[in-house]
Amino acid sequence: ILNVEQSPQSLHVQEGDSTNFTCSFPSSNFYALHWYRWETAKSPEALFVMTLNGDEKKKGRISATLNTKEGYSYLYIKGSQPEDSATYLCAFRGGSGGSNYKLTFGKGTLLTVNP
Amino acid sequence: NAGVTQTPKFQVLKTGQSMTLQCAQDMNHEYMSWYRQDPGMGLRLIHYSVGAGITDQGEVPNGYNVSRSTTEDFPLRLLSAAPSQTSVYFCASSRTGVGYGYTFGSGTRLTVV
What we know:
heterodimer; A: mainly beta; five-stranded antiparallel sheet; 0% helix; 55% strand; B: seven-stranded mixed sheet; four-stranded antiparallel sheet; 11 strands
């Protein structure tokens, strides 16, 4: 069983604050790292899929970086808004050949943005 | 496009009953999977499929059965429901290439009493 760790477990910030979370994953047999946004009572939605060491992705105020050699990824939110409140999941896709289809998810970081 | 459609949304079963959770996608995705989500546990992979006729086990396969007779459908069968199978179940699909994220269904909340 692969170990994908996310920290912190939860985070409360004020509207306008910038924040970041961490995802740690195995540094061997890396294939891809996914980030998802999961709002209450909805389904997870893909934010980013990152495949190369040093990758940086950006979507609006949200960005992510990837370090496959040391096994971590950061998700940044600039100028948090109440609508950013959600659980942010990362998921590791590793292995080779026929075993690299599976995603192993972390437990998520629950972000609450107070107006 | 409907995306990934899961039925039913809610279900209550008695211990020992069997049932099938349905999952269908209309995006021609090769890869389909079933996850369960339990408090404090995150999403855990039950079974997955990389194409019609091909299935494999995930992290927590015991008590569940799957088949993939078409690209579109990937049903999950509970053979003899147990209270430990009370959970929220998500079906997800994607293309098999490395750069594709998953599309999730809306989930099925199952309670086994």
